[in-house]
């Protein structure tokens, strides 16, 4: 089998996991050195083929408590090597067994470092898995979109403040951290209007996959009009910007990885953040820039009003602690 890019480049390898052949959507990469289970189950990668630069994956096995959603979300995985041996006291299944269980095709034996260097120059590009000796008939794949869920993550205190989440791609790890900060998290499918019938102390617009311009922004505008505290991150940051009349642009490369430096515009401190996105908000009148990407100077955070802020990266503890206090 081979991974064919619409640029005409071809990367040969062996396929394991699922037996799928066909379009896999955008081919994106992540340079993280750990947390592979979290990556492949993160809704932000829904409907995309994920390239991992880590030379060997699967040697730690899989712990299902690390799942960030109910199942792997990637359309395909492109790796150099998958270990058949797992050595970790937390492991509940082998990495390969999980891929096979959920039918996720993985192309192994690929020079992923070379592929990533190519992707850095090409920018956004679609791919297709083709049989050996075959050719790509079409690169068209369904647009990535995460199917939201209805779920409540209760905090221990019955008097805990409630944050309501329209689920465009809520990571379970984020919900658990808010629980630890004493906040109950109530998750709805993002297009479920019944979330506005719930008594809530504030709103969280989470990350997610896909083109933000493809969303109906009516639910975001309703959230803004409630006047209650709002924290938005990743895709949520982009949706909030669009609903406020801002413009967004597609980055030539995107920000994906666990080591992206972001400077706080007020304190001047730099945080090393995790990100996975291909869009950026252009300079926006009426919003104060709260965070800036150190590498390329793009906007990474905006404060729209005193109780409404958004960031392009996964919110760190300082942001979540401040938001939990805001909800109270």
Write a structural description.
- It is globular, with a radius of gyration of 20 Å.
- The protein has helices spanning about 35-40, 95-100, 110-120, 170-180, 220-225, 235-245, 315-325; strands at about 1-5, 10, 15, 20-30, 50, 55, 75-80, 80, 105-110, 125-130, 150-155, 160-165, 185-190, 200-205, 230-235, 250-265, 270-280, 290-295, 300-305, 310.
- The mean pLDDT is about 90.
- Strand 14 (about 200-205), helix 5 (about 220-225) and strand 15 (about 230-235) form a beta-alpha-beta unit.
- It folds into two domains: about 1-130, 3-Layer(bba) Sandwich (Glucose Oxidase, domain 1); about 150-325, Class I glutamine amidotransferase (GATase) domain (Rossmann fold), CATH 3.40.50.880.
- About 20% of the residues lie in helices and about 35% in strands.
- The chain contains seven helices and 20 strands.
- With about 325 residues, it is an alpha/beta fold.
- The N and C termini lie far apart (about 55 Å).
Largest sheet entry: 10 strands, mixed
**What CATH architecture of the largest domain would you give?**
3-Layer(aba) Sandwich
Helix content: 10-25%
Estimated radius of gyration? 20 Å
Q: What is the mean predicted local confidence, pLDDT? A: 91
Task: Just give the CATH class of the largest domain.
Answer: Alpha Beta
CATH fold title of the largest domain: Rossmann fold
**Extended strand count:** 20
| Low-confidence residue ranges | none
Strand coverage percent: 25-35%
Overall domain count: 2
């Amino acid at each position: 089998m081979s991974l064919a890019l619409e640029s005409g480049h071809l990367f040969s390898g062996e396929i394991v996991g699922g037996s799928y052949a066909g379009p896999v959507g955008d081919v994106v990469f992540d340079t993280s050195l750990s947390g592979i289970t979290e990556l492949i189950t993160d809704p932000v990668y829904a409907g995309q083929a994920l390239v991992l630069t880590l030379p060997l994956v699967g040697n730690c096995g899989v712990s299902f408590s690390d799942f960030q959603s109910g199942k792997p979300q990637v359309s395909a995985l492109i790796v150099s090597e998958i270990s058949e041996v797992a050595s970790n006291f937390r492991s509940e299944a082998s990495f390969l067994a999980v891929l096979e269980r959920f039918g996720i095709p993985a192309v192994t034996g690929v020079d992923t470092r070379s592929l990533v260097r190519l992707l850095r120059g090409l920018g956004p590009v679609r791919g297709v898995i083709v049989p050996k000796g075959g050719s790509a008939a079409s690169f068209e794949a369904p647009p990535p979109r995460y199917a939201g869920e209805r779920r409540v993550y209760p905090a221990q205190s019955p008097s805990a403040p409630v944050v309501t989440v329209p689920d465009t791609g809520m990571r379970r790890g984020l919900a658990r951290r808010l629980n630890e900060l004493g906040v109950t998290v109530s998750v709805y499918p993002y297009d479920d209007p019944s979330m506005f019938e719930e008594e809530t102390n504030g709103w969280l617009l989470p990350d997610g996959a896909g083109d933000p311009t493809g969303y109906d922004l009516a639910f975001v505008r309703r959230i803004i009009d409630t006047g209650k505290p709002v924290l938005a991150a990743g895709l949520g940051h982009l949706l909030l910007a669009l609903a406020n009349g801002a413009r967004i642009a597609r980055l030539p490369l995107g920000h994906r990885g666990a080591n992206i430096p972001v400077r706080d515009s007020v304190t001047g401190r730099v945080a090393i953040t995790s990100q996975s996105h291909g869009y950026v908000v252009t300079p926006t009148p009426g919003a104060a820039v709260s965070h800036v990407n150190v590498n390329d100077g793009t906007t990474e955070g905006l404060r729209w009003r005193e109780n409404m802020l958004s960031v392009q990266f996964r919110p760190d503890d300082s942001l979540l602690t401040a938001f939990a206090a805001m909800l109270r």
